[in-house]
Amino acid sequence: MTTHEIELKALMLASLDGDAASHRALLERLSRRLRAYFKGKLAGIGRGISEAEDLVQEAVLAIHLKRHTYDPTEPLTPWVHAIARYKLIDFLRRSRTSFAEVSIEEADTMMAHDDNVDAESSYDLRRLMQRLPEKMRCSIEAVKLDGQSIAEAAGRCGISESGVKVNIHRGLKTLAALIARETQT
């Protein structure tokens, strides 16, 4: 086990025990690693930095919501990597990126998808989403949860496509801040 893995796992275990400072530190460190991961993967298919940042926010939110599924007897980084892969796959599906644009090394992950939605995590997400303004919540639900395109979400929410993008970006940041506040208490 690498020093990095040991440090991350220690932060995760402290986080699971209710240490808010460790939880924040864990999410910050994972965000940096996830940002590099997503930028690298998306650059290979001609996608931008803003899309990588959206994926970072989605992955960090998923890590927070699914943290109770982590098995402390196992290494942390493969668990985090699996979540990141699923978020990337979901993004590729939503953006209708052709499988031909994905490298052969990633082809085996294109068929994998975690359909298991834990009831407790769903409740947490619904409760947090209710704290967002209506148009922001509509944008996130349409694109990130229901898999609609930006154009479809704009029609559904009654706002412009750029408004949908801004709402998603700001909404995911707001959700991350809400999560951070909740873990402090």
TrEMBL record:
Q: Which Pfam families did the record assign? A: Sigma70_r2, Sigma70_r4_2
Residue ranges occupied by any RNA polymerase sigma-70 region domain in the UniProt entry: 28-96
Q: Does the keyword Transcription apply?
A: yes
- Does the UniProt entry include the keyword Ubl conjugation? no
Q: GO molecular function, one example?
A: DNA binding
Question: Which GO terms of type biological process are on file?
Answer: DNA-templated transcription initiation
Q: Which PANTHER family match?
A: ECF RNA POLYMERASE SIGMA FACTOR SIGD, RNA POLYMERASE ECF-TYPE SIGMA FACTO
The entry's protein name is RNA polymerase sigma-70 factor, ECF subfamily
Q: Which organism is it from?
A: Bradyrhizobium lablabi
